[in-house]
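Note to self: the last two entries modelled the partners one at a time, which told us nothing about the interface. This time every component goes in together.
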Amino acid sequence: MGELVEDRTASAGFEAVVLSHLDAAYSLARWLTRDDHAAEDMVQEAVVRALRFFGGFRGGDGKAWFLTIVRNVCFNWLKLRSTETLHDPFDEDIHSPDTDGPAGQTEGAATSVDSSATAEQIGAALENLPAVYREAFVLKELEGLSYKEIALITKVPMGTVMSRLARARKQLRKRLDQKSKES
Amino acid sequence: MDCVRESALLGGYIDNELDALHVEEIEAHLRDCVFCRTQYEQVLRLQSLVKERAPRYAAPAHLRSKILASVRTAQPGSRARAWIPAGWFQFGGALAAAVLLSSAITYYSILPSNTDRIVDEVVDTHVRALITNHLTDIASSDQHTVKPWFNGKLDFSPPVTDLEAQGFPLVGGRIDYVNGRPIAALLYRHRQHWVSVFIWPDQHVVISAPRSFSKRGYDITQWSADELFFSVVSDIAPKEQDEFVALLRGDKSLQ
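The predicted structure of the combined assembly is written out below.
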């Protein structure tokens, strides 16, 4: 997407950047806030900020630029309004000895994604992910962004993007597991 | 290779984000390790399930229009001025006179027999793009970005002109399907309104003076040039649409 918004004059660019990425912005805000009205407020707030900072935008990846602002607005909101953890959660899989490797294969290997899962179930599973996993997953799987773009937007190294995505996928698989759903 | 390290790298492999060395390493590992192969398949399954079925959220129409309005009032310096630049009336007036003159002659030799159907179809296409919010496949106000984008996607090369300075900024382009063939669709904006331009080759139709129709609250203007058939659809004032058409046609001959 980067090449699409290059070489713009400021006046020509702003509306084009904001308009063409409005859906992506709303989607990210909706997944982060998990609330329709809050998502609208976040996008409006982001547009106001974007307008103020647009002078500093030197072309390049307009989508990542705008989504970064949306993301920051959402995280500020989450900080104030929710009890959600906004950093990488303590993950037992990482900090306890090898439960995911060959020694602990039973758990991981036993998960089987339930292909009959409904939109509601998938939505709920996604909304239940910790915020930092949720944003990485949404940006990757629903917006189709690269690790580099996600790293830029979420202000973490690409390695962190990769591990957050791995955690997100693992948690989703657990939640959408055939067996655990039946029980 | 140990599988703990594998689990994050596996994602990188699936997302096509690894360098060649790591790709090779992972592929070798996947051949040997049943556990990781299952993980791999499960992630792919999750991926397609999410792509296919996860709820999608698009900006509601009222939010979009609210934002458009706020962007425009917040940018009086660039926006308001951009649509009526100094010299516009002079330039537009000359073009309008030229259009009046040419339409007074109303020279068109062959009209497509299926004019009505095509008019209906372009209106439908315009409305459908707005309703489904599938406005552009390539969003850019740069004609030098939009024009080459069509290369290899169509069997003709549509003329693309940005008319930002004249109050009709180019928003982008997309491929659509009209009259039984893939066509070029260009989208322009005029204040709160969208203006579609549909272009496809038709060497049998010659309409050298633009013809206008009204259908369902939209104005349609059609003409042909260089064996290409043009249709403009919008809900802007007919006079403004005439100016837009004049600009599109005029700019072409100026280049």
